[in-house]
Write a structure and sequence with these properties.
The protein is about 10% helix and about 30% strand. The chain is α+β, with helices and mostly antiparallel strands and about 450 residues long. The chain has 3 domains: about 110 residues, no CATH class; about 160 residues, Jelly Rolls (Sandwich); about 150 residues, Jelly Rolls (Sandwich). Strands 1, 4, 6, 8, 11, 12, 14, 17 and 19 form a 9-stranded mixed sheet that branches. A 5-stranded antiparallel sheet has the order 16-15-18-13-20, with no helix packed on it. Strands 3-9-5-7 form a 4-stranded antiparallel sheet, with no helix packed on it. Strand 15 and strand 16 form a beta hairpin. Helix 3 crosses helix 6 and helix 5 runs antiparallel to helix 6.
Length: about 450
Amino acid sequence: MSNQAKAGLPARLCFCYTFPQVKTPAALIFYLASAATAAEVTFQKHVLPILQNHCQGCHRTGEAAPMPLLTYKDTRPFARAIRAAVISKKMPPWFADRDHGKFSNDTSLAQSDIDTLTTWADTGAKEGDPKDAPVPKEFTKGWTIGKPDLIIDMPAAHKVPATGTIEYTYFVVPTGFTEDKWVETVEVRPGASSVVHHIVLANRPKGSAYLKEAPVGVAYIPTTAKPTFSGKKATGDGSFVGLADGFIELLSVYVPGGFAYDTKPGQARLIPAGSDLIFQIHYVSNGKETLDRSSVGIVFAKAPPKERVINAYVRNDSFVIPPGDSAYRVDANVEIHHDTMLQSLMPHMHLRGKAFEYVATYPTGESQTLLKVPSYDFNWQLTYRLEKPVLLPKGTKLRATAWFDNSPNNKFNPDPKSEVRWGDQSWEEMVAGFVDFVVPVEVNPARIATQSKQ
């Protein structure tokens, strides 16, 4: 009888370890030493491949992360911090509920990778043999998309003040395109990431009245009604922004940790001849006067596309969030009027944002949750690219739902005693469910969808 049984312990609490049969203590010691060596985790062989695949896109000089993780020397001081970040799943940032949807740009770590990084930190964070290291990953300085075919800069550097609240600032930049351009990839880059919270880049077609009063090439802050990318002020109609005749189309968004806006083979976005690009920049003061000259990199399509990718967003701007409410719900709905493929989704709220989801209700009455973000983080506004695009047949209702925490329990809440309405600034709120739609190139984007009450 085992010692555990004699002590009256239940059998399920007995942990038994089986080793190969050995005849001497020396042999046992040799076996244990060999097993430990075989299980040793080193930076060069085990950790570096994980960093290359999941971390170095941001963790390199000039990118959003505060420190590079390219070499052992870079990484060793942060071994314990890396351990804590991956166990808590704070890093890499990824917030989609795994029960709803699969995404091609999922940056989250497999449990085996988490185990590798924690074991490495727990066993001395050894370097290992440099010969075991994978080939270094190549990056183009300043860009995640490789070398762009065309770079368009803001015409001049803009001085961001050291202190104070800065209203959204707009810059109108002519493209100079004399013919329609189809583009595969668009990446927006801040000139001074320390003062750029985010950038929204839009295409303004020739003849559009949107921001017609704004001077070309210099900073412009509207002094009257604040514009949105629908070309009009907030309306309270829960509209589908961007899909209207002469619409202003979103081309790309910069947020820390975000992704360039790209397309699949046979697809492209359209920038019509004579268009202007509009940079809408949310600057934040950081105690030091700073110069910013942001830019956009464009990769053109190599051949005429068969499908057009269109970015827009489902919006509801008529809400009022009560003081102290910890789970206030706001819905925004549209109806699809042409068979459309849904390719990516990006929820957008501000500091009181708590959770977000997209739900499609098909003409059959069946509903599908396309994306659920149970813990929204304003600092990481990610785009979620569907692994397999979803067909939204004509008659589908698409709903974006946002939940807000306006209670004192929200540590980011600027003022839990105030009512909160739609607005540009972080202490105001937005319900904006960005989407990438894909349709045949001959389809008029103005006819894809309209606002719906349900």
